[in-house]
Amino acid sequence: MNEKARLQELIKYKILDTSPEKELDELAEIASAICNTPISLVSFLDEKRLWVKAKKGLDVTEAPREVAFCQHTLHSSQEVLVIEDFLQDDRFKDNPLVHGDPYIRFYAGAPLKTPSGHVLGTLCIMDNKPREISESQKNALKLLAKKVMDYLETRKLLLEQDGEIESSAIRLKKLSDQAPGAIYQLEMKPDGSLYFPFISKGFTDIHPDLDPVELKEDAAIAFSVVHPEDLEAVKASLFASFETLNTWSIEYRTISGDGKVSWHWANANPERKEDGTVVWYGTFQDVTARKEYINALEQIVFDISHVIRKPVATMLGLTAVIEGYTLDQETLRKYAGHIKTVSEEMDEYIKKLNEAYSERRLKVAGQQFSF
Question: Of 18, 135, 217, 256, which is least packed with CB atoms within 10 Å of its CB?
């Protein structure tokens, strides 16, 4: 037997020093009922001790390994160890558990064997008087020991999966924290109460005045930063998405504690649970820079259509006159002078527009935004 490997495998089950579990307590009860004994245990052998996970009829949680009866099962993984009378067995008659409290005289233990063949401990029954055990009772102990191991295997698998899920959740959180804007899960119950089960770190960046911990309990606090002129529209769009399950998508203004106004975009897809709760999975993004960029383009269009329209109209009028009449040299020079003046005015307008919007482009380029 490789004791080091056995102990390493025992550690992997993460069973030592854990709280009682109903399933194992019940298997210990069944073992006592089948064999009609007052005491039953599900126990494990650590490097220096016997540790009891489930018990009936004995108020003990651990004992030194050298006095543990089940250590003798480590080399007999296929058989139930039966001691009909400890006082008649030279291996145990001087054991403190035999000649002292709890005065054990009878023992039968079925090994808890892993798929790799290591014995972790036993499912055992004990009595304070000598007795015998039938073959059918031995088989029952073996079957119950197998049930204990089946439970431990399932438990171990679930713990491993929980570990993987936790690890994946940590990785996902790291990724979500690096994403632009804020990633969130928002829930609204049928009574209208709102809360955020999940908010990424980006939420704090775009809403430094809000406490993520408080938002997880009451998401309605987020309405406090919405611009008063946009608040009703934001609420109405959210409630409409709750009713119709259409995508919630709205751009609105927010106000920070220092009075700064920003544009935000909320976008999320809803799902309805069986209890009527609606869950949105989506993002918040600061789109102030995008709004400024669009406004700049709109201003350019406005300036072009209003500021440049006049000189263009003047030039069109002059060219129409030139085309429609036979003019002498002096008159042509006069109209050419007018066209030159208008062209110079237009060139000056264009230079000013270029300077103004170059400054705007540099300002917008220095901000981070997404579409």
Answer: 135
- Rounded Cα–Cα distance for residues 70 and 113 (Å): 13
- How far apart CA 348 and CA 237 sit, in angstroms, is 47
Instruction: Tell me the two tokens of residue 27.
Output: 């298997």
d(CA 129, CA 107): 10
Same fold, 3-162 and 179-286: yes
**What tens digit of pLDDT does each residue of 188-209 get?**
999 999 999 888 877 777 788 8
Domains of the chain by residue range = 3-162, 179-286, 294-365
Look at residue 77 and give its three-state secondary structure: coil
Query: Which CATH number does 3-162 carry?
Result: 3.30.450.40
Report d(CA 366, CA 315) in Å as an integer. 39
Selection from 32, 368, 38, 357 nearest residue 206 by Cα: 368
Residue 64's region, left for phi above 0, alpha for psi from -120 to 50, else beta, is beta
Q: Give the pLDDT confidence of 144-158 residue by residue, as tens digits.
A: 999 999 999 999 988
- Containing H/E element for 159? helix 135-178
179-286, superfamily in CATH?
A: PAS domain (3.30.450.20)
Q: Cβ(96)–Cβ(67) under 8 Å?
A: yes
The DSSP result for 38-76, as a single string, is SEEEEEEE-SSEEEEEEEES---SEEEGGG-GGGGGTT-
Cβ atoms of residues 81 and 87 within 8 Å: no
Work out the number of other CB atoms within 10 angstroms of the CB of residue 240. 13
